[in-house]
């Protein structure tokens, strides 16, 4: 299992990384530009991310633009819909416009409002059809 956490807040990245680390490999990016580059590199290396958590409000490139860019890259390289990365949008705002844009414009799978709780995040990932098993280390 391979995860990508894209969030400009260090504490948020660290929390989500701590939650997901027992279940697989976790990369982190501090903003949308880094996230897109990490996504592009993983895809090029044949090791795409299974799940991406993506903060909405970030400098340089916000989460909505990052998600649209990720979906565009998937389309360019011919990733079938069923193999597309599962994306959870995360925000400090419970904003209906952001929720609408995440689902309908960016094809996000889920939307969560901070603060993130461990069991809520794990349940959300499993509800997307992703099986979480603790990796042997």
Automatic annotation (TrEMBL):
InterPro entries: CheY-like_superfamily, Sig_transdc_resp-reg_receiver, ST_Response_Regulator. The keyword Phosphoprotein applies. SMART domains: REC. It comes from the Bacteria. Keywords: Phosphoprotein. Residues 2-129 form the Response regulatory domain. One of its GO terms (biological process) is phosphorelay signal transduction system. It holds the Pfam family Response_reg. This is Two-component system response regulator. The modification 4-aspartylphosphate is found at residue 55. PANTHER family: TWO-COMPONENT RESPONSE REGULATOR (PTHR43228), TWO-COMPONENT RESPONSE REGULATOR ARR22 (PTHR43228:SF1). The keyword Amino-acid biosynthesis does not apply.
């Amino acid at each position: 299992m391979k995860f990508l956490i894209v969030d400009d807040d260090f504490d948020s990245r660290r929390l989500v990384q701590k939650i997901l680390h027992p279940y697989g490999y976790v990369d982190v990016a501090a903003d949308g530009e880094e996230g897109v580059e990490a996504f592009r590199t993983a895809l090029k290396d044949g090791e795409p991310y299974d799940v991406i958590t993506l903060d909405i409000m970030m400098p340089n490139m916000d989460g909505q633009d990052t998600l649209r860019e990720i979906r565009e890259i998937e389309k360019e390289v011919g990733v079938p819909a069923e193999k597309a990365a599962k994306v959870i949008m995360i925000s400090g705002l419970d904003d209906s416009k952001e929720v609408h844009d995440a689902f309908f414009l960016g094809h996000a799978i889920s939307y969560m409002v901070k603060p993130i709780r461990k069991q809520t995040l794990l349940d959300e990932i499993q509800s997307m059809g992703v099986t979480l098993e603790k990796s042997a280390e």
